[in-house]
Specification:
Oligomer: heterodimer
Low-confidence stretches of chain A: 1-22
Number of helices of chain B: 13
Keywords (chain B): Mitochondrion, Ribonucleoprotein, Ribosomal protein, Transit peptide
Subcellular location (chain B): Mitochondrion
Strand order of the largest sheet of chain A: 1-2
Distance between the termini of chain B: 62 Å
Distance between the termini of chain A: 62 Å
Strand content of chain A: 5-15%
Structural class of chain A: mainly alpha
Helix content of chain B: 40-55%
Strand content of chain B: 5-15%
Number of strands of chain A: 2
Radius of gyration of chain B: 33 Å
Organism (chain B): Psylliodes chrysocephalus
Largest interface: A-B, 45 and 47 residues
Radius of gyration of chain A: 24 Å
Pfam family, one (chain B): Ribosomal_S9
GO cellular component, one term (chain B): mitochondrial small ribosomal subunit
Mean pLDDT of chain A: 88
Chain lengths: 228, 390
C-alpha cells in the first residue's frame, strides 16, 4: 500500500514537471494553479455567484509584489507603471506615475476653482484614476494596419485587434506622447496633460487614433488580403 | 493484478501445451493422415496448428514467470533477513516496516527520492505485462485487438455506448415530461481527469498525446449529458481528487506571554533570498517593528503596502502588534517574506472563512519562484547571443 502511494507520488511529480515544460510556458507554477483574487469586492462577487466553490479545491498562486487589497491599488495603474518602467527601476516608474496623478489632481482642481458656472463645475472629473481609465478607453483603436505581402507588393491591410492589444497600444501611445516634450517640461507633467486631454476626447493621442482609423478606412480595399 | 491474469492464462496451458508441442513435433506427419485414431485426444490437431506467435509468447511468459518467481523468493528471504536484523518477527514484518528498516540501515542524503535505496515487492518494481491476447490458434480474444490498442478503444467504445443509452433515457424522460433533478447533477469540482501516465498504467498500453486528448474530450462530452449521474461509477474511475488544501486551515493555538497577551511566532519565512521570522501579539495597537525599526525600515511604498496587505485583508490593522526580524535579499524579497509570515501567523486569530478567503487571495502560498541562473554560452537565463554568420 505504502509502496503504491510512493510510486504514484513520483508519477504526479513527473506530471507536474512535464506540465511546466509543455503547457505553461515559462511559468514556475503548475498549470492547475489559479491566479489570486486579491480584491475583497471581486471575492464577494464570486461568493454571490457561487463560483467560489469551484476554486475551493484548487491551489492558488502567491499574490504578486504589486498586488494588494488596499483601496488605492488599481490594476490598470500598475500596468501603466510597468509600461513606464525602464531596466526594472520600479521605484522611479512608480514615483513618476504617482507624481503624474498628483499633477492631474492639481490641474483639475485649478480648472475647478477657475470655473464660475455651477453646471460646468460638476462636469469636471477630479479623480485621477477615473481620468486614467477614461483616457485609456478613449484612445483604444479598433483596427490596425499590418503589412501583408501579395505579388511582391507590401499592402497595409486593416485588421481588427483584440481588446487587450488595443489597451496596450492605447497606453503605449499615451506614454510616447508624455515623452514627446520640450526638455524643460517633466515627463509626469506632460503625461498628466495628455491624460486629461485624452479623457476629454481631445489632444494628440486621440488625433493619432483618428488618423489610424482614417488610414484603415482608406485601405479598406485591401481588407480581403487578410484571408486571400 | 495483470500478472495474476497472465498466470491464469499461462498456468493451465503451460505443462500441457509444452508437452504436446513436443509430441506434435514427433508425430507431426501422422496428424495429416486421414486415418481415424481412437486413442488420440481430440485436441491433437489444434495443438499442431499452434501459431508461432503463441509459441513465442508462451516462451516469453514462462521466462518472465520464472524470473518473477525467483525475484519473489529473493524478496521473501530478504524480508526475513531484514526482520532478523531489526530484531522483529519475520512473520509479521510489513512493507511499512521494510521501508523504515531500509531508511534506518541505509540512510541516504540523495535529493531524488527515486535514487534512494528501496526494497519493494517485485510486482511493484518490474513493469506489468499484458496477458495473452490470442488463443492457441492465433485468434484474438478481444474484438478490438487489431486496433493495436484494444483497452484504449474499449474505453472509448464504453463511452459511446453510455452516451447512446443516456440519450435514449433522456428522450424517454422528455416524452414523460420529467426534468432531470438538479440536486443529483454530477459535480466534478474537486476532481480532475487522470493524467496520461496513470491512464497508460491503467490500460497497460502506450497511447499518444492525441489519443489522450480525444479520451478527455469524449469524457467531457459524456459528463455534459444531463443524466450523466447515472454512470457516476464509470466516470469516477477515470478521475482523481484534486490536491487537498486542509493543511492551510489547521492553525496553531496561540501561546500566552507574561503580559497575558496571546502571541504566535512564525519562523523561516522565505521569499527569494530573504529569510525572516514574525511574531504577532494579540490584542495590540498596530505597532510594527522590523529589525528594531518601524515600517520606515522599507523605503519604498510598494514594500510597505505588501507588509500591510494581510492586515488590511483580514481587518486586523491596529488590532495586533507585529515584531519581525528579516535578513538577506532586497527590499521586495524581504517584504514578501514578512507578508507571508504575517498572513501565516494571522490564521490563529481569524476564523475559517477568512482563512479560505486569504488562501484564494494568494496570501498563504509560499512564493518559491526565484531568479533563474545565467547559462554559459548564452546572454542570460534564456536569451542567446546575437547570431553572427562569421
Amino acid at each position: 500500500m505504502f509502496g503504491i502511494t510512493k510510486i504514484q507520488f513520483f508519477n504526479s511529480n513527473l506530471k507536474v514537471l512535464s506540465t511546466i515544460i509543455q503547457q505553461n510556458g515559462m511559468s514556475q507554477y503548475p498549470n492547475y494553479y489559479i491566479k489570486p483574487i486579491y480584491k475583497k469586492d471581486s471575492q464577494e462577487e464570486l461568493i454571490k455567484s457561487g463560483e467560489i466553490k469551484k476554486l475551493s479545491h484548487l491551489p492558488t498562486r502567491a499574490a504578486l509584489a504589486d498586488q494588494t487589497s488596499s483601496f488605492s491599488n488599481d490594476p490598470l495603474a500598475n500596468l501603466l507603471i510597468n509600461y513606464c518602467m525602464r531596466e526594472g527601476n520600479k521605484i522611479l516608474a512608480r514615483n513618476l506615475v504617482e507624481q503624474c496623478f498628483e499633477n492631474i489632481k492639481r490641474l483639475q482642481l485649478e480648472k475647478y476653482h477657475k470655473t464660475t458656472n455651477e453646471e460646468d463645475k460638476h462636469q469636471i472629473d477630479l479623480d485621477p484614476k477615473s481620468i486614467l481609465h477614461k483616457a485609456i478607453e478613449n484612445c483604444k483603436p479598433i483596427l490596425q494596419l499590418t503589412p501583408i505581402k501579395r505579388g511582391g507588393v507590401r499592402y497595409q491591410v486593416p485588421v481588427p485587434i483584440t481588446d487587450k492589444k488595443a489597451q496596450f497600444i492605447s497606453m503605449k501611445w499615451l506614454i510616447a506622447a508624455g515623452q514627446e516634450k520640450e526638455s524643460t517640461v517633466r515627463f509626469n507633467l506632460q503625461l498628466a496633460r495628455e491624460l486629461i486631454d485624452a479623457a476629454n476626447n481631445t489632444g494628440r493621442v486621440i488625433k493619432k487614433k483618428q488618423d489610424l482609423h482614417r488610414q484603415c478606412e482608406a485601405n479598406r480595399a485591401y481588407a480581403h488580403y487578410r484571408w486571400s | 493484478m495483470i500478472l495474476r491474469q497472465i498466470m491464469r492464462v499461462v498456468h493451465p496451458l503451460r505443462p500441457v501445451t509444452l508437452q504436446k508441442n513436443i509430441l506434435a513435433g514427433i508425430n507431426g506427419s501422422d496428424s495429416y493422415s486421414t486415418e481415424i485414431k481412437d486413442s488420440v485426444p481430440q485436441e491433437e490437431p489444434t495443438k499442431k496448428n499452434i501459431s508461432k506467435a503463441m509459441k513465442a509468447y508462451l516462451e516469453r511468459a514462462k521466462e518472465h514467470e520464472d524470473f518473477m518467481q525467483k525475484q519473489r523468493e529473493e524478496f521473501q528471504i530478504g524480508k526475513r533477513h531484514l526482520a532478523n536484523m531489526m530484531g522483529e518477527d519475520p512473520e509479521t514484518f510489513t512493507q511499512d516496516d521494510i521501508d523504515h528498516a531500509i531508511e534506518y540501515l541505509f540512510p541516504s542524503g540523495l535529493y531524488e527520492k527515486k535514487a534512494r535505496p528501496l526494497m519493494k515487492p517485485p510486482e511493484e518494481v518490474f513493469p506489468q505485462r499484458k496477458a495473452a491476447e490470442f488463443d492457441e490458434s492465433g485468434r484474438p480474444y478481444h474484438f478490438l485487438f487489431y486496433t493495436g490498442k484494444p483497452n484504449y478503444y474499449q474505453v472509448l467504445h464504453d463511452i459511446s455506448h453510455h452516451l447512446i443509452e443516456l440519450n435514449k433515457f433522456e428522450d424517454s424522460m422528455i416524452r414523460k415530461k420529467i426534468q432531470p433533478d438538479p440536486n443529483l447533477a454530477l459535480d466534478l469540482s474537486g476532481y480532475q481527469w487522470i493524467d496520461k501516465e496513470s491512464l497508460e498504467e491503467k490500460l497497460v498500453e502506450t497511447i499518444g498525446d492525441k489519443d489522450y486528448e480525444y479520451f478527455i474530450n469524449c469524457f467531457v462530452r459524456l459528463t455534459a449529458v444531463p443524466y450523466a449521474y447515472k454512470i457516476k461509477d464509470f466516470i469516477f474511475e477515470y478521475t482523481e481528487p484534486l490536491l487537498n488544501q486542509v493543511q492551510t486551515y489547521d492553525a496553531v493555538k496561540p501561546h500566552i506571554d507574561s503580559d497575558g497577551k496571546q502571541f504566535i511566532t512564525v519562523y523561516e519565512c522565505p521569499r527569494k533570498a530573504a529569510r525572516g521570522d514574525v511574531t504577532i501579539r494579540f490584542p495590540g495597537t498596530g505597532k510594527i517593528t522590523i529589525n528594531n525599526q518601524g515600517i520606515t525600515y522599507f523605503e519604498d511604498v510598494q514594500s510597505r503596502e505588501q507588509l500591510l496587505f494581510p492586515l488590511i485583508f483580514t481587518d486586523m490593522l491596529n488590532k495586533v502588534d507585529i515584531e519581525c526580524n528579516v535578513s538577506g535579499g532586497g527590499p521586495s524579497g524581504q517584504a514578501g517574506a514578512l507578508r507571508w509570515g504575517i498572513a501565516w501567523g494571522l490564521r490563529s486569530f481569524v476564523d475559517q472563512d477568512i482563512i479560505e478567503k486569504m488562501r484564494i487571495a494568494g496570501l498563504l502560498t509560499k512564493d518559491y519562484r526565484t531568479r533563474e541562473r545565467k547559462k554559459p554560452g548564452q546572454w542570460g537565463a534564456r536569451r542567446k547571443f546575437t547570431w553572427k554568420k562569421r
